[in-house]
Amino acid sequence: MPPPKDVVKIAIQMVGAIPQLIELQQTKPLASVLKDVCDAWSLPNAERYALQYADGRQTYITESNRRDIKNGSILRLTTSPDQEAEQLYIGIQSKNVDVKTDSLKKLASLSQDVTFAQEFISRNGLKQIYSIVEEGNDTGEMLAHTLKAFTELMEHDFVSWENLSTVFIKKIVSYVNMNAVDASIQQLSLSILENMVPTSRLLFEVVKKEVTLDRLLTHLQATNAQLQLKAMALLIALLLSTTDAERRDMMDYLRKKNIRQFIHKNIIHSSEPLGDEMAHYLYVLQSVSLNLCEHRMKMSMDPYSQEQRDLLQSLRQTAFESESEVPAGTFSTERRRSLCAKEFRKLGFMNNSNPAEDLRRAPPGLLALDNMVYFSRNTPNAYSRFILENSSREDKHECPFARSSIQLTLILCEILHIGEPCSETAQAFYPMFFGQDHFFEELFCICIQLVNKTWKEMRATQEDFDKVMQVVREQITRTLSLKPTSLELFKTRVNALNYSEILKLRQTERLHQEETLAVPVLELREKLKPELLELIRQQRLLHLCEGTLFRKISSRRRQDKLWYCRLSPNHKVLHYGDVEEGVQSPPIESLTEKIPVADMKMLLVGKECPHTKEKSSGKQNKDVLELAFSIVHDVEEYCLNFIAPTRYEFCLWTDGLNVLLGKEMTSERTQTDLDVLLSMELKLRLLDLENISIPDDPPPIPKPPSNLNFCYDFSHTEQ
């Protein structure tokens, strides 16, 4: 008798027939199972039939995926994929418009299934799709179904995008460039072009030439949110596929067209909530734009470059304009050199005789010089005030402008991740970035004045330089975490966060983190741990019961498909299934796929996951590896793969799954939560002992009394 895991109890339906309840033996060939099912309903030619799931995506059952069938699954007997593919292949060539449209509609639906797609493509079905697009003039329902079917078939990666003909590509481009065409067709066309662009340089060149930036900007201004999203997706795909020079030109053109202001007003602050996918594209656009600074950041100053020397001299001339106007013949060369060195020292250069040496460090390289020049030219009053104010202070208390600017530029580059590749899943962008041209330079102008303000508040000397810059970094990061919507709001908040406020925040955080280290308290801490760990376990399981929305990332890293996973209230079954955009918490009944907790074998994370190994040929992305985990169930080769939306979700899900597997919770979040709970519980327990020192050793137990006659006898009551 086969082991229980090789037998599943299922129901099989067929239109117009009484359902069959069978025990499916997984070791029995699928052809034999189909023959038995067909014989029970007296159906000849069992090879013309196949089984597929009755709910959800209605995937065909094959030898490769049959192990995914769970107890209680409902299957349906239907036409086999090869028969269906043959019928639809004939149907899409029909002269009857209704038959052709219905066939294309069904094709678009069935093409999501990999087995059917393989059968249809093997019959040269894509060639018929090409013909319908290339030769047809229809822009209605038939074309929409055709493009949808094409997109789904190409998603399986059986055919290379490079095989597409120039005629086909130009036809797709024409739908994007047309004005009088249905929005759904334009969305599908934009999506097709987005998939083409990363696959080859040739396709990128074709799309870049045929679809102008002006046309994409027109689609971005559409009121249709999905059309807007697909236009943004294509724009990002083009930007990521360009060379550095092309990217710079494209960004310059977009800046002239005021794309930032449009995004700030009509997308970020629109009445509709911002979706995760659009948030990711805005993050990428921000990252690409800021990374244009990378070239200057990594370039050291060349002391022999006249242009760079002129920029450096302009800083001195702007600050000490009246002194620089003295006629050249008034001083000797030596005297003039001495005067310049003195002025560069007042500007805060460490090497005042040769200030170019201060800018040889890269990063921040020439980017620091660019920032200083921008500050001096665009806010000359603030620049002069900074220099003159510090020139009049005692030597040890003056805030060095140049040294501070160089270090501040480096800090801003680190905070804004300039020079780092774009994350494939991140959605964290700064709304104020899109509300301001020259964002990086303007941010620098605010922050360099903050350095001077903080320097004065700290009454700092030259020896305190690193401490001041650490405080400034903290002021900037804390303010950015509040996501201010404009630079003005950022300026107001960062200036309000003065040195005394930083000290208060640090003190508060330190008090939260500090623990009394007395031995009795440590013993109490250990005693409380099991109870609090159990509380954390219950919270993790509760989170799994509430469920989470995950995104599917294909080989081309597209994130437009969503699925939801949640644990049943009795903690015995994991339910999951595909959901549509906008669905926040689907009912558990709508999630058709199931994994019994008893069938779960182990949890894999990071590089151990099969879906990260599959993509190891490409450039691995660190953040995806940090968010990836998989559940191995039944036998090791069957996994349910996840990519968590955030590190927080990753920690909660991996902890919860480890609890279900009877293992220890290992995420960093567990330790953080445990520390917080222990701190709170200890403070509550020790509340009455405030300002009382706790001895390391318990007090000695006194000797027993000489007699025990001190107990009052209540039996002798006074009369």
Automatic annotation (TrEMBL):
Presence of keyword Ribosomal protein: no
Any one biological process term the GO annotation gives: actin filament organization
Keywords: Apoptosis, Phagocytosis, SH3-binding
Domain ELMO span(s) in chain numbering: 307-480
Coiled-coil regions listed in the entry: none
CDD domains, per database record: PH_ELMO1_CED-12
InterPro entries: ARM-like, ARM-type_fold, ELMO_ARM, ELMO_dom, ELMO_domain-containing, PH-like_dom_sf, PH_domain
Keyword Iron-sulfur listed: no
GO molecular function annotations of the record: SH3 domain binding
Protein function: Involved in cytoskeletal rearrangements required for phagocytosis of apoptotic cells and cell motility. Acts in association with DOCK1 and CRK. Was initially proposed to be required in complex with DOCK1 to activate Rac Rho small GTPases. May enhance the guanine nucleotide exchange factor (GEF) activity of DOCK1.
Name of the protein in its database record: ELMO3 protein
Provenance organism: Vidua chalybeata (Village indigobird)
Gene name tied to this protein: Elmo3
